[in-house]
Amino acid sequence: MRYLLFFVAIVLTSSCTSVTSETLSESEINAIQARVEERHPDLSRLQQKAVTDLVVRALDNMVFVEGGSFMMGEFGWPCEPGSDKLCNIDIWPDNDHLHKVTLDDFYLSKYETKLGDFDLYRDVMGREPYAPELRSRDDRQHLFEPNLPAWTKAWQEAKDYCLWIGELAERAVDLPTEAQWEYAARNRGDKVLVATNNGEWLPGENAPPHDGIRRLYPVDSFPANPLGIHHLTSNSAEWVNDWYSETYYQESPENNPTGPVSGEAKVVRSGGFSTSASSKTTILRGSAPAVERSYYRALGFRCSQH
């Protein structure tokens, strides 16, 4: 009888920590679990299950984006409603060279990487929680809710997170290229001004309310764009894979561009919550040092699959 009760307890414990998926078969989940156990043998059983769940959710959240061709960069916008005259969407000259890009099919995460998942990754890798001085304050706990976008400091750590998921999943997971990011934000290359469900910026409906408070929101707070991808222009600014060059749009190859081979800064797409609503466009591009001075809550990322 004692052994029967022990067996039942084991079954119940296993069922409580089992991992389910919307897209993966049981055998695929078990294979991921086996790779987690092999790669991270020192983790507890519960931690291994948590990592498996993270990887499975990351794959479930991948949105298929059919490849195609589009004109990337400053496509212009009516200077006045109803006008045939086009004006520049933003003031940055680096975007002005409109150029044809053709992309293969890819997947892009419907969500920005969550703080809770990034914390788990860093813990698994033996790293201390970032911003400990803020985490210890009762009046700053709201900044570290697990469903908010992750804070980042280094481009490489964001890339390594995506590669880590890819290794455990045996999939080609990485940061998206700049061209993939813009193509998805523009609903496969349409002339879309902002990456909301309808291409309009409606505070409180499909975008953060116009209440004078600029902050991060949970990664699933507002409606997705028509491809099913959330917050491409309304939450964190996002790292992409490419090195930044002021002249790259004039030099970019047409097929699957990946940016310059080297540089001094990485491309960052979307202005994030710290920019004004008028700046949150699908063509806005900026740059940041590959390693910032500290972890920054307005600079996050999402993964892609090639």
Pick out its properties:
17% strand; 4-stranded mixed β-sheet; single chain; 14 strands; 4-stranded antiparallel β-sheet; 8 helices; alpha+beta; 306 residues
Give me the count of strands.
Answer: 14
Order of helices and strands: HHHEEEEEEHHEHEHEHEEEEE
| Biggest sheet layout | 4 strands, antiparallel
Gross geometry: globular
Mean pLDDT: 92
Q: State the helical fraction.
A: 25-40%
Q: Order the strands across the largest sheet as they lie in space.
A: 1-6-14-8
Rg (C-alpha, Å): 21 Å
Q: Unreliable segments (pLDDT under 50, ≥5 consecutive)?
A: 1-17
Strand content: 15-25%
Instruction: Report the end-to-end length measured between terminal Cα atoms.
Output: 53 Å
- Class from secondary-structure proportions: alpha+beta
Question: DSSP helix count?
Answer: 8
Describe the structure.
By secondary structure, this protein is of the alpha+beta class. It has 8 helices and 14 strands. The strands form 5 sheets. It has a 4-stranded antiparallel sheet. Strands 11-10-9-13 form a 4-stranded mixed sheet. A two-stranded antiparallel ribbon has the order 2-5. Helix 2 (26-39) crosses helix 3 (45-60) and helix 3 (45-60) packs across helix 6 (155-169). The longest helix is centred in the first third of the chain and has 16 residues, at 45-60. It starts with a helix and ends with a strand. Residues 1-17 have low confidence and may be disordered.
